Amino acid sequence: MIQTITIEKATEHVKGKLSPKRFTHTLGVVEMAKKLARTYHVDETQAHMAALLHDVMKESPLQEMQDMVKEGHIEVDQEMLNNGALLHGPAGAAYAKLRLQIVDVDICEAIRVHTLGSTSMSILDKIIFLADYIEPNRNFPGVDELRQLAFIDLNRAVISAYDGTIRHLLDLGLTIHLDTIRGRNSVLLERSEL
Ligand SMILES: [Fe+2]
Ligand SMILES: [Fe+2]
Questions:
Q1: Distance, CA 145 to ligand 1 centroid (Å)?
Q2: How many CA atoms lie within 13 A of 5 on its CB side?
Q3: Which CATH number fits domain 7-192: 3.10.180.10, 3.40.50.300, 1.10.10.10, 1.10.3210.10?
């Protein structure tokens, strides 16, 4: 992995940008992502850094997120642009690259797609997406089973995480971004091709 900032420095930086609660969540994602990386033979430091930075912009004002994606030339649609819950991924990727000199494109991509997923998710992308959903501080019915599944069948666990997210959005009567549907479809198709 090519890297220009140490894990220690990045940790301090993230700690300064997040509330204690979100920082605790972030450390939970790091812990889970590292374990999954070991299981699926992904560079552990790469997973550590991506997990550490995945929510780096989550608590920043929407305007800052918008400025960040613009500066980083990251393409986003209107729906993402106006919603911090969706935009913090792309904004975080731009932040990692431009403010923290993360030159590893795999790390930036995993940060970019951690909320919605994508139609071409790498194993690292899936690990961060899933670790965010099942980190130790998360508590919802079925989380323990999903944690177990994550170490047995990564794709099935990712589909399950998509399903849970979609159900949750339906229950709340909220919009579902098309990338969520497309991402789920592509992992389903990937499985059926095995
Ligand atoms: Fe996030
Ligand atoms: Fe998160």
A1: 22
A2: 23
A3: 1.10.3210.10
